[in-house]
Amino acid sequence: MHKGTHFIGKPLYGQLINLLDKDKILKISRENGGERYVKHFDAWQHLVIMLYAVIRRFDSLREITDSMFPEACKLAHLGVRLMPRRSTLSDANARRLECIFETIYRDLYATYKHLLSSDSRKRQTPKWLEKLQVLDSTTVSLFSNLIFKGVGRHPKTGKKKGCIKVHTNIYANEGVPSDIKFSSCIFCLTSA
Question: Would you list the domain boundaries of the chain?
Fold first, then answer.
């Protein structure tokens, strides 16, 4: 049986990536200084690889690179020409500002906003429901015993401190957040 690199059809991940506009993403990155001092690993490749990592639920750069190297020939259609090393991926994560990815998310949200609510909700949705927003504020502990067992400061009480507050805004007739903000959790910082 012949083993070629030309596959018929497109995998699900490739279909999701088709929803993104590569030129617009690179333009957003250039406007925010994300392409400064970059030779090969541009914002498009960075976004494609990080989305792959999120979908596969990887926790480390080693998992990302170890998983992507065997798939190199299959990812050419996504615009990933070279598989980055861990150091390249780490440098890109440190150097590229989060406002670039925030702008990309907001642009995607604005583009596909009308497709997010289901058809049954569109037919019977009263005007007030279209304006109804659900706000959520969740505390994410950074030092749980499961994730970071030996990390964190042990104050006199013996508890580890540190958390992030995630503020989310969702329109009631949609299923995706329209706005997400992260802040330091004041309770965790001030409690003893």
Answer: 12-99, 122-190
